[in-house]
Design a protein that fits this description.
The chain has 115 residues and is of the alpha+beta class. It is built from 4 helices and 4 strands, in the order H-E-H-E-E-H-E-H.
Amino acid sequence: MIACPDEDVEQMCLFRWARANEGAHPELELLFHVPNGGKRSKAEAARFKEMGVKAGVSDVFLPVARAGYHGLWIELKRLDDGRPTKAQLKWIERMTTEGYVAAVCHGWVQAARMI
């Protein structure tokens, strides 16, 4: 049985794909990761919260308007068992209401197709 890559690996693959396609699609240069997750000490988590980190914010953002939308938010999950949290689903719903495309993608290939 082949192990499924974790979210970090999926995201690295997505950004490699984006860099490889910037020549044909220069707007991919604007794609970025929101470093919102990860394990932190209680003190560091409190400091980050004071700095504006919010639970549920999606992993990846492409600030490019297309087809009447302001941009694209992607919550990237691993292929096999990645499930969004309630906070992540709430963020996606709110961003959709605000005029963005916002989606959960399982694996980098699905995310690249969404882009």
